[in-house]
Amino acid sequence: MDTKRLPTHPGYVLKEELEARGISQVKFASCIGVSYTMLNEILNGKRSVTSDFAILVEAALGINPELLINMQSRYNMAIARQKPSTAARLSEIRNRAASWLL
């Protein structure tokens, strides 16, 4: 069984940053023009960071948007690989394509 830890969702990093700066979620959501619900879902790893959201964060906090997007991409890939249906399908594809690699 694979026990590798999931990559960190970028929302968790942003949540820690807001707390370290003493910025409330309500205040930050208002500042960047998104709903509190949307921000809270991102900060709790329930919603993905989009490119649009990442550049809003950059404007407000100076955090590199590519960092957030790359973190989200790594997180998404790890989640996709953990799905049992995906793992089985990948195994089938690898078996079928094995002869191409010789």
Describe the structure.
The protein is an all-alpha fold and 102 residues long. It has one domain: 434 Repressor (Amino-terminal Domain) (Orthogonal Bundle), CATH 1.10.260.40. The longest helix has 18 residues, at 65-82. The mean pLDDT is 93. It is 70% helix and 0% strand.
Task: Spell out the blueprint of helices and strands.
Elements lengths: L9 H12 L3 H8 L3 H8 L7 H11 L3 H18 L1 H14 L5
Summarize the structure.
With 102 residues, the chain is mostly helical. The chain has helices at 10-21, 25-32, 36-43, 51-61, 65-82, 84-97. The protein is built from six helices and no strands.
**How many angstroms does the end-to-end distance come to?**
28 Å
pLDDT < 50 stretches = none
> Architecture, according to CATH?
Orthogonal Bundle
**Overall shape:** elongated
As a whole number of angstroms, the C-alpha radius of gyration is 18 Å
**Pattern of helices and strands:** HHHHHH
Query: What is the chains' assembly state?
Result: single chain
Helical residues, percent: 55-70%
Per CATH, the superfamily is: lambda repressor-like DNA-binding domains
The count of β-strands is 0
Mean pLDDT, rounded to whole units? Answer: 93
Helical run tally: 6
Q: The CATH topology, please?
A: 434 Repressor (Amino-terminal Domain)
Strand content: under 5%
Class based on secondary structure composition and strand pairing = mainly alpha
The profile of the biggest β sheet is:
none
Structurally, the number of domains stands at: 1
CATH class: Mainly Alpha
